[in-house]
Specification:
The chain is α+β, with helices and mostly antiparallel strands. The chain has helices at about 5-25, 75-85; strands spanning about 45-50, 55-60, 65, 95, 110-115, 120-125, 135, 140-145. The longest helix has 25 residues, at about 5-25.
Length: about 160
């Protein structure tokens, strides 16, 4: 095998390895596991509740997203993108919710509930020491950054 062909194979192997590393990094943001395994491109329904009041009920349609309450298409695609991204936020810390006083974490009752298809994310209070937001998924409590909570309120 000529040195040129050998070099090309080596460069191809290095490019493949770098591609794999980039893919794995995108799956685990900053080394943390995402709070859900949901893929935003496959989510078809979004429901946002605040204090048992439905703020938004959205459904993916062939030509975009629609507000089921009004039947109108959702024109703010950035808002939808941000809501879908919440499913992939990194869990900075997690622990079991069993036998805990959920009220102490602001999760009983939750401030907001975000339902992405059948996955319910309950938003609680903020940890005073770290400034991170408590959320509950099933029987796990996670701490996440608080940069996305304001997207739970629908834009005007």
């Amino acid at each position: 095998m000529s040195p040129v062909i050998r070099t090309n194979w080596l460069l191809l192997a290095i490019a493949g390895l770098l591609g794999f590393i980039i893919y794995m990094h995108s799956q685990q943001q900053d080394g943390y596991t995402p709070i859900t395994k949901l893929d935003g491109n496959r989510i078809n329904r979004i429901l946002i509740e605040h204090e048992n009041t439905v703020l938004a009920r959205l459904q993916r349609q062939e030509n975009g997203w629609a507000d089921l309450a009004s039947g109108n298409p959702v024109t703010n695609q950035e808002w939808i993108t941000r809501l879908l991204h919440i499913a992939r936020l990194p869990s900075l810390h997690s622990f079991p919710a069993a036998d805990l006083d959920l009220e102490a974490f602001g999760l009983q009752p939750p401030n907001y509930q975000l339902r992405l298809d059948d996955q319910i994310i309950r938003f609680g209070g903020i940890d005073p020491a770290s400034g991170l937001r408590y959320i509950q998924l099933g029987q796990q409590i996670h701490l996440i950054s608080d940069g996305y909570t304001h997207y739970l309120t629908p834009p005007p």
